Amino acid sequence: MQCRFCKTELKHVFIDLINSPASNSYLNPEQLNEPETYYPLKVYICHNCFLVQVDEYQKSDALFNSEYAYFSSYSRTWLAHAQKYTQEMIARFGFSASSKVIEIASNDGYLLQYFKEKNVPVLGIEPTANTAKVAMEKGIETVVEFFGTSLAKKLSAQNIQADLLLGNNVLAHVPDIRDFVAGMQVILKPAGVITMEFPHLMQLVDNNQFDTIYHEHFSYLSFYTVKQLFESVGLEMFDVEEIPTHGGSLRIYAKHKNDNSKEISPRVAALLAKEIKQGITDLNYYHNFQQKAFDIKLSLLSFLTEQKKAGKKVAAYGAAAKGNTLLNYCGVKNDLVDFVVDSNPHKQGKYLPASHIPVVNEAYLKQEKPDYVLILPWNLKDEIKDQLAYIRDWKGKFVVPIPSLQID
C-alpha cells in the first residue's frame, strides 16, 4: 500500500481495529438474518509526510450512497456552530450579494441556509442524493456529484467559482485527497478564501479518540501534513484556528499562493511549532496507541458485564459512526446494550451494523427508564446530558467512554 499523498510505501501500523462493517451501514429488520460484509480497519502512518490513513477497502461511492443516513441538521450544537461560522466569515471577509459561497459536502443545507438568509448566493456540492434533496427543498442549489478536479473544471468552465470555498469534515472522507485539493485550487477565485474544518490528529492521539476511525475516514490529519498537501497544488495557508468541535478540530484558511492581499497570521507558525514539539513528525509519538484503545475496550466490557450481572439496564444515545467503531472493536452486542436512541428519524427503526442494537426514538427511552445511558457521540456529551437530564428522575446515570470511562 502506498501513501495516498506522497506515494511512499507504507510500513508502519498506527492501530489495527480488526474487521467491521462500514460504520453507516445501518440494517433494516429483514437484513438481520443476512450475512454482513466486514472490511479490515487497519490504519497506517506514512514515515515521509506523516499522513495517517486507512486503505480504501470499500469504495467511496458505496459508502456515500443515495440513502446516506447522516443528516447534519439533527444536532443543535452543530447548527449553532454553522450559524456562528457564517456570521464570522461575513464580518471578516465582507461577503455579500455579489459574492459566491460554495460548500463541498453540503449535506442537507445545514450551513448554506444561513448564508442564504443573509442574501449571499450559495451553491452546494453533495454526492448523496437524499441529503441533497433536503437542501434543495430549502431552496439551496445543489450539484449532486463527488468533488474533484473534473467537477471543478466543469464548473469553472461555466464561470462558477468561489469567493468562499468551504468544507466541514470532508477532507478526511476523500480517497484521492490530492485530486480533491487540486480541484479546490481550480474552483477558487484569484482572491478567494478556502476554509476547511477537520478533526485534529493531535487530539485523536492525545485523547484516545480511536473511535473516530472508520471506513468513511480515509485520512487523519495534522496541520503539518495538510499544509504540505495544499502547497503541493499552489495553495497557501494564511491562518488556522483550533476549535472544540468533534473533540478538537482545526479550521484552516487557505488562498492562492500568488494572492498577496492576505497577511499570513502568526498562528500558522505557532501551530506548526506546537505540533512538532508534541511529536507529530516522530514515529515514536504514534506508538502505544493500540494499547490505549485496548485499555478502553477492557474498561467498557468490564462495566457492561458488571451491570448485566447486577440486573441493570444499559441503553446508548447517538447512533453515530464513532459509536459503531467503539462497539464493534469492543465486541459489544445487543445482549449488553438494549437499545440506542437517536433523534434522526432516518435511523430509527433500523439496527446498528454488527452489534444489531435497535435504534429507537426518545419516547422509548422515557418508557424503558434504563439505569445507564452510554453516550456514544461523546463530543456532544454536554448537549445530550442537557437534553436527557430527566433520567436523573429515576436515578439514571450517564456513561462517557472516551478518553476514559466516566460515570456521571
From TrEMBL:
Pfam families hit by this protein: Methyltransf_13 (PF08421), Methyltransf_14 (PF08484), Methyltransf_23 (PF13489)
Xref: InterPro entries: Methyltransf_Zn-bd_dom_put, Methyltransf_Zn-bd_dom_put_sf, MeTrfase_14, SAM-dependent_MTases_sf
GO function term, MF aspect, one: methyltransferase activity
Residues annotated as domain Methyltransferase putative zinc binding: 3-64
Example of a GO biological process term: methylation
Keyword set includes Ribonucleoprotein: no
Keyword set, alphabetical order: Methyltransferase, Transferase
Ranges of residues in domain C-methyltransferase: 244-403
Domain of life: Bacteria
PANTHER family reported for this sequence: BLL5978 PROTEIN, TRANS-ACONITATE 2-METHYLTRANSFERASE-RELATED
Official protein name in the record: Methyltransferase domain-containing protein
UniProt organism field: Chitinophaga oryziterrae
